[in-house]
Amino acid sequence: MTLVSRRTLMTGSAGLLLAGCDRINSSPSVTHTLDLAEGLAYRTQRLIVGREALAPEYGVGDLSPVFRSNGNALPRSPIWQGLAASGFRDWRLRVDGLVRRRLALSHGQLRALPRRTQITRHDCVEGWSAIGQWTGVQLSLVLALAGLARDARYIVFHCFDDFSGTPYYESIDLVDAFHPQTILAYGLNGKPLPIQNGAPLRLRVERQLGYKHAKFLDRIEAVASLKDIAGGKGGFWEDVTGYEWYAGI
Amino acid sequence: MADRHSDPDLAPGMVVTRHRWPTRVWHWLNALTVFVMLMSGLMIFNAHPRLYWGRYGANFDHAWLQIGADSRGGFVNVEGLRVPTTGVLGQWHDRSGAVQTRAFPWWATIPSHYDLAGSRRWHLAFAWLLVVPGLLYWLWSFARGHFCRDLLPRAAELRPSHVWQDVKDHARLRFPTGAAALRYNILQKLSYFGVIFVALPLLVLTGLMMSPGMDAALPWLLALMGGRQSARSIHFVCAVAIAAFIAVHILMVLLAGPRNELRSIVTGRYRLPGRRA
C-alpha cells in the first residue's frame, strides 16, 4: 500500500516536473534565451578557430567501408529527374544574387577548373560519422569567377530535393565560403558523385555538421541577409525544426 | 588556515563552518546544470543510440554499445552481450500508453518527446553554465588551497590497507565523528577528485571534440582521444560515471544525516556528529 502510493507519488511528481520542463521547452522566451548560446558558440569559434584552420584530413586506410547516405536519396523534382536521365548533360550550376557576373556552369566547365581532393569526416547532427574522399572545385574559385558584390554576406545553396514539397536549402557565411576545404564536390571515393550522396554536385563545408552540406545543387545565390529566404533562418532544418544555423558544434 | 581536523577543542555537537560559499554556490548551480546536461544528453543519444571506437562510425560499422528494440523487445547490446530491457530502455510506454522504441524513455530526457534540435539547444546552452563556473571553481580551489588541503589524496591514504579499511567502514556505515568528520576520507577524496578533475574535464574536452569546428582548432586533442567516435563513447561513459556518482552521493547524504548535510551545503554550517546508536 505504502509502496504503491509512494510509487504513484514519485511518478506523479516526475510527470509534473517533466510536464513543467516541456512547457519551459516550448516557451518562446526560453527558446530565445537558449538560442543566445548559438550566437555565443558561433562568435567564440570564429574568435578562437583560425579562418584557415583545416578540418582533419585522413588517409585512404581511414575510409568508411560504406559511406552512409542521409536525408533525401532521390529528388522527386521532375526537372532534376529529366536532367539525371540525360546524365546531367544539360544541368547548369547557376550563380547569381549579389554578384558582378551571373554564371551558368556546366559539369565540364566545373571539372575544367583546378580540382581539390580531400579525405574528410562527415559528422551528422544525430551523432554518427563517416569518412569519405571528396573531389571538386573550391567554392572560392567559383565565387571569384562571379565576383561578389560589396554587400554580399552569405552564400545560399538552393537544392533540387524537397521534404513534403518544401525545397531544401542551406547557407554559410563568407569565412566558410572562402575556406580552402569548402568545395563543390562532384566525386566521392574516386567515382562520380552517387545520386544518394547528392549528384550532380553537392557542398562540402568541412567544419560544420552534415545538414549544412547541401546536396543536389541547382543554384548558388549571394545575399546580404537571410531574412527574406524561405523561413528566414538560413536553412531547411533551421526553419523547420530549429537546428542551429551555425553548425560548427 | 590551521588544521582543524585534529583540533581538540572541536567536540561532537559543535556547529562549525564547513563549506565556503564558492563550494555551496557551485554545488547548487551544478545540481541544476548537471541534470539538464544529463537528460538533454540522453535525448541527443536517442538520435543515434549506438557507440563506436575510432574515427568514424555509422550504421554499417561495428558498435560496441547499442540500445534498441527487436521482435523480442527492448535491449542493450554491449559487445554482443544482449541484455533485455523492455519497459525501460529501447522499448517503453510513453505517457499516453503508446509503445515507443527510442533508447532512453520519456522520463529520463529533456524534452520528454523526441526532439533533437530542442535537446541540443538545452545541452549547448547549459554547457556554458557547466564550463565557465567550473573553471572559476577550479581557479578558486587551487588559489585558496581547497584542492591541496581537502581533495588531493595523500600517499599514506592511497595504501591499499588504508583504502580497504575505508571500504569496510563505508560498508558497515561507520562514519567518522567529531572533528574527524570534517576531513574527507579516501573514498570521498577519490570520488570528488575524480569528478572534479577527471570526469568533468574529460566530459568537456570530449564534448568539444565532437564539434567539427573545434576539431579544426585542436586536431591533436582529437587524435589524443582516438577520433571523434571514441570521443563520443568516452563522453557517454563519463556521463554514466557522473550519474552513478550522484546516486551514491545522495545515498551517502541520506545515510550520514540529511538534515545536517543539507544545512552544511546550503548555509555552510555543520554540526560535528557524535557516535550514533
Here the CATH topology of the largest domain in chain A equals Sulfite Oxidase, Chain A, domain 2
User: Which protein chains make the most extensive interface, counting residues with beta carbons within 8 Å of the other chain's beta carbons?
Assistant: A-B, 52 and 44 residues
Report the biggest beta sheet of chain B as strand number plus sense, adding barrel if it closes: 4 strands, antiparallel
Specify the overall morphology of chain B.
Answer: globular
**Strand order across the largest sheet of chain A:** 2-1-10-5-6
CA distance, first residue to last residue of chain A = 49 Å
Beta-strand percent range of chain B = 5-15%
Q: Mean pLDDT of chain B, nearest integer?
A: 93
Could you tell me the radius of gyration of chain A in angstroms?
Answer: 21 Å
What is the name of the CATH architecture of the largest domain in chain A?
Answer: Alpha-Beta Complex
Radius of gyration of chain B: 22 Å
Secondary structure category of chain B: alpha+beta
Q: What's the story with the biggest beta sheet of chain A?
A: 5 strands, mixed
Classified in CATH, the superfamily of the domain at 15-47 and 113-271 in chain B is Transmembrane di-heme cytochromes, Chain C
Task: Count every beta strand of chain A, where a strand is a DSSP E run of 2 or more residues.
Answer: 10
Annotation field: number of helices of chain B:
9
Query: What would the average pLDDT of chain A be, to the nearest integer?
Result: 93
